[in-house]
Amino acid sequence: MDTETKTFIPPRRRGLLFNLGIIFLLTLASLALLFVATGTPLGPGFLLYLLGALFIAAPIPVLAYRTINLMRGEYRLGRSGIELRWGFREEDIPMEQIEYVELAEDLLFPLELPRWRWPGVLVGINQQEKLGRVEFLAAERDTLVMIGTGKRVFIISPEKPKLFVRTYRQMIELGSLVPMQATSSFPRFLLIEIWRVPINRALLIVSMVLSLALFVLVGWSVPTLSEVSLGFNAQGNPLPPVSSAQLFLLPSLNLVLVLAGYALSLLFIRQKRDHPIVTLLWGSSVLMSALFLVAVLFILSAS
Fold first, then answer.
1. pLDDT at residue 48, rounded to an integer
2. Strand partners, 137
3. Is the pLDDT of residue 1 over 60?
């Protein structure tokens, strides 16, 4: 971009307060349930508190990611074009590809906003009858600006929308000095890439169901047992019995191995969405979880 670039940022205050506030409350609630679980005897109650803590903590990574996106969000306007930055989403639009830059409030028809939105997060892509394909990279609905191109319309939210539009018109009058190359970069997430391939999606769901079933089975059975044997010696005789609480080692080990397969998938999903190694890894996770489940059933039947 040329030296006359002007940088505009989205309104961040309300979004940061909301997202960080929710993250704090969810973290507090999750830690409280974990604290209660530590004082609860092993059994259904312990399992309920543990799963409750995990369930409450599940949205935290999403909120943290959206907060990072908001902090990294900015719009750069220069004589060569417009650069949009929203987290790891990057879009460079040469000036010759821009058809118009207008305030969204000047529309004569209602703008369809993304379905999932909250303070600081107005992000997503939808298809609108009069505008076509629309992508939102915005924080608040009160400062929206439309950037029209031949392929799609970008909706952004600079803190000073009128100044942004006025600056764009000034840049047009000055003309471009250095041609800008059009680029478009989307963040790629493993779970999303896996979800788009039917067989990998099925394997992921089955693996999660089996892993959860394994934890539930162990958590439900441990209070009824005092001791269990976790294997056999070289002569085929059962190993000395241990505390039934050690049965939790099996679902925990299974979870660690499933997560290891997830991490290893990163090496191959970047090369190709439907890479056969990814399918092999998730198929192995399903088989491994099933074998752990059979092993626990065998141990319980022998106890």
1. 82
2. 123, 156
3. no
